[in-house]
Amino acid sequence: MVTKKRVVSLDVFRGLTVAAMIFVNTLPVSQYTPYLLKHxxxxxxxxxxxxxxxxxxxxxxxxxxxxxxxxxxxxxxxWGHFIYxxxxxxxxxxxxxxxxxxxxxxxxxxxxxxxxxxxFAAPLARSKFKYIILTVAVxxxxxxxxxxxxxxxxxxxxxxxxxxxxxxxxxxxxFGVQHIFNQDVDPGFDPEGILTIITATAMVxxxxxxxxxxxxxxxNWGTIKLFLTAGAAMILLGVIISPLVPIIKQLWTASFxxxxxGLATIILSLLYSYLxxxxxxxxxxxxxxxxxxxxxxYVFSAVINxxxxxxxxxxxxxxxxxxxxxxxxxxxxxxxxxxxxxxxxMIVVILWGIIAYYMHKKRIYIKL
Length: 368
Description:
Elements: H1 8-26, H2 47-69, H3 75-101, H4 110-121, H5 129-149, H6 166-175, H7 194-217, H8 221-241, H9 254-277, H10 288-292, H11 294-310, E1 312-314, E2 320-322, H12 323-335, H13 337-361
Antiparallel strand pairs: 1-2
Helix pairs in contact: 1-2, 1-9, 1-11, 1-13, 2-4, 2-7, 2-9, 3-4, 3-11, 4-7, 5-7, 7-9, 8-9, 12-13
């Protein structure tokens, strides 16, 4: 049962982000899909590219509250639970990879990256701000220096292209080409690979800083002004360094982290001012149930979405047709491919929202 006074804006932000993750995973992508609803092919930034880093940012903000709420626990209790959570997240991520791709098993993944970034960020959860900020700067600089100056057999230093970059070479050496996402490029590459862990950890730490500031300064307009200024500064810094280190989601470059962290900070500050300081009632509160059961709803939605894409029936013409296609195709035929695909994804999000509301009403909260 949830009894602690919660930060409403954080639950809303988490819920909206989970809804966006379900939407993105469910959306039938085709040549008709709007550019902003597809991942950027390489350099650039779309709406879809924001979803995952926003969730990592929220993980960091939540970490600040989680460690504070567990202040009375012994180190063994605190870290025992945390390590259990990390291992469980990683294993669930492997399970999703197995459901989606079978064997040989892809090792990196979304939940695996969340688990590892959280693991490496957690030791700083109770550190002073200056040490956390310094660590963020070191991590962003470290990955940038590796991308700019490290070379390997078949890899040229400073290559930011989708193939032949040092990040892909590292992934192949660590995991083997058969255990990563992109096996059709040379030397292979995974968007949640080894080098992304470095900057993903930095993203969690930025969220941790924001969470700690909220705890210390509380909800006031001075804090909101600080967040808006910091968010704008991060975006500006990301844009300034982007000619040297381009904004690339698949590499989680420093510029990508700074821009997305800045946007996340601004969004959270606006939500906090409206929902927590002013305590306004809003339709945004409908996202709270999704935010309270974020993990389990994401996992279940991913499993079901994968199953319906893999179960086929023969159509009237005799051609194999997946359940997934049988569900979205009528909407695409009726409403045009673009609007029909978006409508289908929105219906799925609403259905999961209803399930989340029912769980919230019954006070069912499933967490690690």
